[in-house]
Amino acid sequence: LEKPDTIEKLEELLAAHSYPHMKKIWEKERSAKEAEELQSDAVKELREYLRPSIVELVLKNRKCVLKSGYKFGKLVKSKSMQKGQQFWFWKLDANEKMLICTDCSNTESSSNANSSGNIKIDIADIQSVVAGGEGDFPKSSTKGKKNSNVRGITLEVGDKPDLYHLLTFDEQTINAWCDGINALIGVNKLSIQAQRQVDRFLNIELKMRLLELDHIPNSIEIPPLPKNFDWIPKDIADTKISVTKV
Fold it and tell me: Fewest Cβ atoms nearer than 10 Å: which of 96, 124, 164, 237?
């Protein structure tokens, strides 16, 4: 900026560059600097190194969601989900070996559900889990037709396979259960929601690690080996090293 010659020009300059305006400029410069640092080769390599641990953390969270359980809806003959809707409570056991399903009512909590009619499904028997949208669920009343009013997930269990339809409109629950079950059966697949969470945690971890660094080099040069190794004793291989226990 040019130095103002008069008071009027100074006032115009201050009016054009007020503190709120300058604060926005500083924030924009800081964001641009952070974005540039996160795109350097060294940071990209660090990002790939940290990614597996962050993915493991997110999947661990998904498994905890399964252990807490969720009350899903059942497919019913009625065309309306609200009329005559039936429910069942699903949860993952503490050992992560099986899914436990219990019939319950709309007002009934999981702790009061009837445990005598439990359905237990071994994780090893689950072939796949699929998130279903409109038209992906069959009606129980009319064979071959699709139900366009429901959402949820479908479990394929066994070699036949047996299908279990777990209905819910909660997109976050659908993603969490798909991610958790895929992790349990060894399918390397993350929902878009989980991928965004991994990227967000990665950026936070990287920013925390880069706080004390003023400049991030694009590459790290490894110094060459010394040309002279005379400083190493020739009889080092024959030297007996004694260790004294304290």
Answer: 237
pLDDT (tens digit per residue) in 67-96: 999 999 887 655 544 455 788 899 999 999
Cα 65 to the chain's mean position, in Å?
A: 12
Give pTM, 2 decimals.
0.66
| Residue 181 pLDDT greater than 70, yes or no | yes
Selection from 128, 244, 215 nearest residue 178 by Cα: 128
Give Cα separations from 119 to 24, 50, 185 (angstroms): 58, 39, 19
Tokens of 138: 């069959």
Name the DSSP class of 106: S
Instruction: Note whether 100 and 90 are within 8 A (CB).
Output: yes
- Minimal CA–CA distance to 99: which of 13, 26, 171, 162? 162
Q: Is the pLDDT of residue 111 over 80?
A: no
Q: Where are the alpha helices (DSSP H) in 100-240?
A: 171-184, 192-209
Place of tokens 């925390």: 208
The Cα 81–Cα 182 span in angstroms is 27
Alpha helices in the chain (DSSP H): 7-16, 19-38, 41-68, 171-184, 192-209
Residue 47: which of 183, 190, 201 has the closest Cα? 201
- 17-38 pLDDT, tens digit per residue, is 778 888 888 888 877 777 776 7
Give 203's pLDDT tier (boundaries 50, 70, 90): confident
